[in-house]
């Protein structure tokens, strides 16, 4: 009987030490993650400080750029009308309606602060991804590291492309449409700085996040939560959603302008299907090799 008790006691002590080791390992991982996140926050803070130094140029040329008729997008649209008159004169935007006002005592200070923080996040986003990759990498197998080795590069590239597309295409078209939209001549469009910045930030950063769709599909496909068959079956619904989004942000009802916005989104969805199919083929090949052995 005493031998049985000793055996049970030994097992209990061993299990307790195993649980303690697992807990310590878990907290060690949290500590490592904390260090990675702290470095990322410091990098974002540095970029935010640099943005404070150039705040006048950022506010005047970048943030309020889509509110000015000489913005790059509007000038390119007018040149298109010159070469292709059939597009219609409405596509050439020479005036942006509405006025931006400040209604709070700390409104302009908050605007400057929020803009600089937003710039710090945008510029520091690739470094944040790199720190996350450094945290996850040790837990991956060699084949998983190899297949995900370009994660930071492709995720950063898609984010930057999305930011540019959102800022130069979606944002100016939306600003022109929303500032000029009226339901009555008795109502004048005046917008607060918070409302304007919120719209510009949402459209720009939102598009950057949307362009991360292939990366998200890559991760979901790795986890077995997404398949190319499902995405192909949902293509018709995705098409309708993309066309609705494009119709909302375009300033004119002509189909040409709508397709300018919709085409990259279609390509993005098709690229996501290709990524999911690639992951599925690799999984099937790995399974076939496993059962062959």
TrEMBL record:
It is a multi-pass membrane protein. Coiled coil: none annotated. Keywords: Cell membrane, Membrane, Protein transport, Translocation, Transmembrane, Transmembrane helix, Transport. GO terms for molecular function: proton motive force dependent protein transmembrane transporter activity. The keyword Transport applies. GO terms for cellular component: TAT protein transport complex. The chain crosses the membrane at residues 37-54, 111-130, 151-175, 195-221, 233-249, 255-279. It comes from the Bacteria. GO terms for biological process: intracellular protein transmembrane transport; protein transport by the Tat complex. It is found in: Cell membrane; Membrane. HAMAP family: TatC. Forms a complex with TatA. Belongs to the TatC family. Part of the twin-arginine translocation (Tat) system that transports large folded proteins containing a characteristic twin-arginine motif in their signal peptide across membranes. This is Sec-independent protein translocase protein TatC. The lineage of its organism: Bacteria, Pseudomonadati, Bacteroidota, Sphingobacteriia, Sphingobacteriales.
